[in-house]
């Protein structure tokens, strides 16, 4: 077990070091800028995922609506995978593939942002939500893993963590979420 722990730590360090070489910082700054502009313009951030990525979406929305590190006003964000009545209604009456896209269509407005989180980039309900967002003038951002899947082709901007190990992808998703919240908060509260 000690070797397992050591191997995972070594793999994580190697993956973290590779971020600096693969344009991570520039993409993260672009996404931060888009989120800041969206909030400044009075629009909202919609976020969704499945399983662990659903938890990440809730975590992200919570940090934006609540706070990350600074005392400040709440920012408009919602995790679309949290309302069980809406999700089960849509899944029952239509299909699970539409549980997020129908919410994006109902709640999204031009100028909003939809952030889809998927370790494979192929989650059909997230892919469908991105298609609806693109059609309706909603900026699309992906936090994805492995090869990026279909989301890589559909999202305007994405952070791709090309690891086959889902846990390593999720670790970088949460790192990205924390960095985005930190940058957004610092920028929006700079002159307050």
Short description:
By secondary structure, the chain is α/β, with parallel strands linked by helices. It has helices at residues 2-19, 24-40, 52-65, 84-93, 101-107, 124-135, 149-154, 166-189; strands at 45-48, 77-79, 113-118, 139-145, 157-161.
Q: Can you tell me the residue ranges where pLDDT is under 50 for at least 5 consecutive residues?
A: none
Helix content: 55-70%
Distance between the termini: 50 Å
Q: Tally the beta strands.
A: 5
Number of helices, where a helix is a run of at least 4 consecutive DSSP H or I residues:
8
Radius of gyration: 17 Å
C-alpha geometry: globular
Spatial sequence of strands, sheet with the most strands: 2-1-3-4-5
Tell me about the biggest sheet? 5 strands, parallel
Q: Which range does the strand content fall in?
A: 5-15%
Order of helices and strands: HHEHEHHEHEHEH
Mean of pLDDT: 96
Structural class, by secondary structure, is: alpha/beta
């Amino acid at each position: 077990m000690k070797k397992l722990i050591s191997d995972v730590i070594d793999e994580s360090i190697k993956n973290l070091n590779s971020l600096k070489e693969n344009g991570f910082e520039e993409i993260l700054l672009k996404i931060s800028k888009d989120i800041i502009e969206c909030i400044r313009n009075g629009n909202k951030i919609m976020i969704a995922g499945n399983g662990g990525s659903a938890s990440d979406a809730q975590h992200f929305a919570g940090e934006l609506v609540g706070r990350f590190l600074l005392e400040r006003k709440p920012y408009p964000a919602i995790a679309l995978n949290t309302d069980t009545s809406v999700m089960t209604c849509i899944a029952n009456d239509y299909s699970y593939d539409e549980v997020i896209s129908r919410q994006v269509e109902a709640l999204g407005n031009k100028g909003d942002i939809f952030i889809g989180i998927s370790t494979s980039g192929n989650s059909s309900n997230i892919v469908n939500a991105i298609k609806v967002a693109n059609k309706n003038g909603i900026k699309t951002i992906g936090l994805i893993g492995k090869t990026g899947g279909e989301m890589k082709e559909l999202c305007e901007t994405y952070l791709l963590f090309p690891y086959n190990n889902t846990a390593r992808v999720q670790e970088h998703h949460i790192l990205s979420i924390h960095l985005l919240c930190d940058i957004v908060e610092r920028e929006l509260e700079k002159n307050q």
